[in-house]
Hints:
It is a single chain. The protein is an all-alpha fold. It has helices spanning 7-75, 82-92, 95-111, 115-127, 133-147, 153-160, 171-184, 188-200, 206-218. The longest helix is centred in the first third of the chain and has 69 residues, at 7-75. The chain starts with 6 loop residues before the first helix and ends in a 14-residue tail after the last helix. 26% of the residues are buried.
Amino acid sequence: MAVPTDSGETFLREVDENLRRDQLQHIARKYGAWIAAGVVLLLVATGGWIYWQDRQEKKAGEQSEVLAQIYTDIGAGKLATAPQRLDALAAETSGALKASVMLTRAAVAVDQNDRPLAIRKLREIAADDELPQPYRDLALIRSTTMEFDTIRPEQVVARLQPLTKPGNPWFGSAGELTAMALIKQGKKLEAGRLFAAIAADQQVPESLRARSVQIAGTLGVDASASMPTLPQ
Length: 232
């Protein structure tokens, strides 16, 4: 036997449904054009973003191929056009690819005995906030290495201070340069302690750790307990 439907509940449900339908119709009439325009704009923007992403990926791939060809030519000793090609590529790239191009440009300048240009390019990398930090740090260390004998030791210490901390990926290289600058300043004990810290850092290459143990010893700091076992 069917259960009779409550006429009051049915009436209220129908009124509610009619009210919602009327509200939707009112919204559609009042805002329909804007909603449609918004949907169209969203679709256009989404399509444009997908196209842009695809185009950027293709462009980056093409630029990487250009850089690979330049590497091949450099390896074959064909340096005549490398500077111009690298400069042109650097002007149209960004991020890690641009940093790689600029580092290569600096290396070519060194190979062509143009140290001022190499240092200038390395400084540009180090100062560019839009490039990945590891590349900037590498450029800072390389430029400081090239300028070590021509700048004041306190400049070396100040430049590399953010990197001269145990655990930093560049601690070994930055620490060694800083310690040598400290020696120039007559701070031999401080330099010896820094060399000892380098020797104790397991992340530093073993050859540098071994050298640091020896130098620390000449400065009156015993770091022999940190001497790594080098392959025979």
